[in-house]
């Protein structure tokens, strides 16, 4: 596993959790994750859950099932990004672009994530697009932030098209530039 990527993600997560605590006196909260079991849950509210990151529980800290399904090698950094921790998705901004950093909530979510990555890569292959691995969502349903599997660059892409713009040379620079966005629930 890539320890630099793990450190970058852990550092951002600590900053995110710390800002939640400073602004609300509570850990991060999520309406979307309410009622979904996870070792991250520390408390529940009326229709939201409060969470704290937990160590990734599986011994195999890789996305080898994704690589095997498509018979490709994945950028090393993507393994560290998705297998460092369990956490809720985290809102952030990157150079004014608001995003939600995709994270793994529980072991079932990790299986779903891998299936979604496989589906994403299969669609790209069918459309003859270079492979990318999503890492963040946007309010737009057709745009996402992904890692280019050929270069490791972090890009803004339109789903199913060649419309792509490089945001960062790699995930570590991207993570260091992220600013947490704290939006309390209720």
From TrEMBL:
Source organism of the structure: Providencia heimbachae ATCC 35613
Membrane topology listed for this record: Peripheral membrane protein
HAMAP family membership: Syd
Keyword Membrane: yes
Keyword Cell inner membrane: yes
Transmembrane spans: none
Gene: syd
UniProt cross-references to Gene3D superfamilies, sorted A to Z: Syd protein
Family indicated by similarity: Belongs to the Syd family.
Function, as annotated: Interacts with the SecY protein in vivo. May bind preferentially to an uncomplexed state of SecY, thus functioning either as a chelating agent for excess SecY in the cell or as a regulatory factor that negatively controls the translocase function.
GO CC, alphabetical: cytoplasmic side of plasma membrane
One Pfam family recorded for the sequence: Syd
Official protein name in the record: Protein Syd
Record keywords: Cell inner membrane, Cell membrane, Membrane
Compartment list: Cell inner membrane
């Amino acid at each position: 596993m890539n320890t630099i990527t793990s450190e970058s993600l852990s550092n951002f997560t600590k900053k995110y959790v710390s800002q939640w605590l400073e602004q609300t006196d509570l850990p991060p909260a999520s309406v979307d994750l309410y009622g979904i079991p996870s070792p991250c849950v520390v408390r529940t509210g009326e229709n939201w859950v409060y969470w704290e990151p937990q160590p990734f529980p599986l011994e195999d800290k890789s996305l080898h099932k994704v690589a095997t399904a498509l018979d490709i090698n994945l950028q090393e950094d993507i393994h560290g990004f998705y297998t460092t921790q369990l956490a809720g998705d985290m809102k952030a901004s990157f150079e004014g672009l608001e995003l939600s950093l995709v994270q793994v909530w529980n072991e079932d979510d990790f299986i779903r994530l891998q299936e979604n990555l496989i589906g994403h890569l299969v669609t790209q292959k069918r459309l003859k697009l270079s492979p990318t691995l999503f890492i963040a969502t946007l309010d737009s349903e057709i745009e996402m932030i992904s890692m280019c599997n050929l270069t490791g660059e972090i890009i803004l892409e339109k789903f199913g098209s060649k419309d792509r713009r490089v945001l960062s040379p790699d995930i570590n620079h991207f993570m260091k530039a992220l600013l947490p966005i704290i939006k309390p629930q209720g």
